[in-house]
Amino acid sequence: MSELTGNRIRSTAGKLGLPHLAETINEFTRRADEGKLGYLDFLDLVLSEELAVRDDRRFRQGLRLSKLPHHKTLEEYDFSFQPDLDPRKVKDLATLSFVEAKANAALLGPPGVGKTHIAVALAVAACRAGYSIYFTSLDDMVRNLKAAEETGRLTSKLGTYLRPGVLVVDEVGYQPLERAEANLVFQVISKRYEKGSIILTSNKTFSEWGQVFGDEVLATAILDRLLHHCDVISINGPSYRLKNRLKAIERETEVA
């Protein structure tokens, strides 16, 4: 390939929004020569790699915008520490069939058992699969919606929680809500109903949600929409955080 042709291809690739091709055309032609690729095989190689680079760029951008507290995966979750949790149930969720169906997933259990880890891992998997994701604690969501309502921007702010394909709502139940606050949560749940997936974590059983939302009728209305299409996983084992803290104390004791 002549230098003139290479420059022309780089220029055209840049105009078409194919930056990887523009940067690596010489590498592509070298591989084509070494592999004695035909025209169609060469075109398939170029387009496949460009798509892979574009998908990876979209994935990384999606993670940046997601507000996820970390990017842990299911491979990093220690299922052996939670023997009562069936790994198959979690891995079934990881197929993302519930996301495709615009259904929900709820992870229940006491603090420290890894609910947020699993919720984040599912969100990361969804992002890699091409879904938009957004993470928030329930308290942060309510605080932001209240502030928007007070300044006449509620409809706009609701969009933050309605647009993503997957909304992760963490720590439901850690702080009780006033009825007006619970009504804001109801608006998010009802408007997302059968339009987008929710992954939530809670340290409360569903029977305790009346106390969380300060109104049994409102809690029932929220649960009615949330649980209509929902996979529920309960994790009732020991705390990871406590385990790690105990190990740290043991090491400090040994050193002393």
What would your notes on this structure say?
The chain is α/β, with parallel strands linked by helices and 256 residues long. It has helices at residues 3-15, 19-35, 39-65, 87-93, 97-100, 115-128, 138-150, 154-162, 179-192, 209-212, 216-227, 240-255; strands at residues 104-108, 133-137, 166-172, 197-202, 230-234. The chain has a 5-stranded parallel β-sheet with strand order 2-3-4-1-5, sandwiched between helices. Strand 3 (166-172), helix 9 and strand 4 (197-202) form a beta-alpha-beta unit. Helix 2 (19-35) runs antiparallel to helix 3 (39-65), helix 7 (138-150) crosses helix 9 and helix 9 (179-192) packs parallel to helix 11 (216-227). The longest helix has 27 residues, at 39-65. The protein is elongated.
Q: Give the beta-strand count.
A: 5
Q: Could you report the average pLDDT, rounded to the nearest whole number?
A: 89
Helix content: 55-70%
- Overall shape: elongated
As laid out across the biggest beta sheet, the strand order is 2-3-4-1-5
Span of the ends, CA to CA: 69 Å
Q: How is the main sheet built?
A: 5 strands, parallel
Name the helix and strand elements from N-terminus to C-terminus, one letter apiece: HHHHHEHEHHEHEHHEH
